[in-house]
Write a structure and sequence with these properties.
Layout lengths: L1 H13 L12 H10 L7 H9 L3 H5 L6 E2 L4 E4 L10 E4 L2 H9 L11 E2 L2 E2 L5 H12 L15 H14 L3 H8 L7 H4 L4 H35 L1
Antiparallel strand pairs: 1-2, 2-3, 4-5
Length: 226
C-alpha cells in the first residue's frame, strides 16, 4: 500500500501536479512548476540550468577545469560564453550536489556527457530536453501551440530571481547580460555580492520545493486514510 502511494507521488511530480502554484498560461510559471516536479536523480543538466541560468551551449561545453571548488564558482572563459567575455557564476548547494553526483571521465574533461562521451552536437542537450518535455506532457517547440524551448529556462530563472528579490544588476551579471546606462560606470559588484544574490534566489526556489513537498505529503496522507 505504502509503495503504491509512493509511486503515485513520484508520478504526480513527473506530471506537474502542483497545488502550490497559481493557474497561469505564463511560460515562467509553467516551467517553475515543472522544475519543482523534476526527478532529481536523472535530469541533472536541467537542475543545473534552473540554478545557474546558464545557456544550453555553456552547459554542453562546461568542463571540470571551469569549476572552482575552493571558492564555489563556475568560471566560464570567453570562448565558451555567447557574450565573448568571461563569466563567473556562484555555485549553490543544488549545483554542488549535482556536481558531486556526476562521475568524472578519464579521457576528457566535460561535465555533461552522453554515454560517457562529450556531447559534440549543439542540439544534443536540446534533444534531451525535448524528451523530458514529452515525458512530462509539456508542449515543446516554437511551432507547437504554447510550446517551450530550452532557452525558456533561462528566461524563467531571470523572472524567478526577480520574484526572489534579486536586484537587476546582480541578475544581469549572473546571467551574463550587459549592464546598461549608468550601471556600466558605477556598478561593480564583487563575488561576495553575487554570492548573496544567488543565496537569495536559492532560498526562494528551495522554499517553493518545500511547499510542494508538504502539499504532496498531505495528499498522500489523505489517500492512505481515505
Amino acid at each position: 500500500m505504502q509503495a503504491a502511494l509512493a509511486k503515485r507521488t513520484v508520478q504526480k511530480r513527473e506530471k506537474r501536479i502542483f497545488d502550490v502554484l497559481p493557474e497561469s498560461t505564463k511560460t515562467f510559471q509553467k516551467l517553475t512548476g515543472w522544475y519543482l516536479g523534476l526527478n532529481r536523480s536523472r535530469n541533472l543538466n536541467l537542475i543545473f540550468a534552473f540554478n545557474t541560468g546558464m545557456r544550453v551551449g555553456e552547459l554542453r561545453l562546461l568542463k571540470w577545469t571551469y569549476v572552482d571548488r575552493v571558492n564555489n564558482y563556475i568560471r566560464l572563459p570567453e570562448e565558451v560564453t555567447k557574450e565573448g567575455r568571461p563569466k563567473n557564476i556562484p555555485i549553490n548547494h543544488n549545483v554542488k550536489k549535482t556536481l558531486d553526483s556526476l562521475p568524472r571521465a578519464i579521457l576528457h574533461d566535460y561535465v555533461f556527457t552522453y554515454k560517457g562521451q562529450p556531447i559534440t552536437s549543439p542540439g544534443g542537450l536540446k534533444r534531451s530536453f525535448k524528451t523530458v518535455c514529452k515525458e512530462a506532457e509539456i508542449p515543446h517547440g516554437t511551432k507547437t501551440p504554447n510550446g517551450i524551448i530550452f532557452h525558456d529556462i533561462r528566461r524563467t530563472v531571470k523572472t524567478n530571481m526577480l520574484n526572489a528579490g534579486v536586484d537587476k544588476v546582480h541578475r544581469d551579471l549572473i546571467l551574463g547580460h550587459s549592464l546598461k546606462g549608468m550601471d556600466i560606470h558605477y556598478m561593480a559588484p564583487g563575488e561576495d555580492a553575487l554570492r548573496k544574490a544567488i543565496d537569495k534566489y536559492t532560498m526562494w526556489i528551495d522554499g517553493q520545493i518545500s511547499n510542494l513537498d508538504h502539499s504532496l505529503d498531505r495528499e498522500v496522507k489523505r489517500e492512505s486514510t481515505g
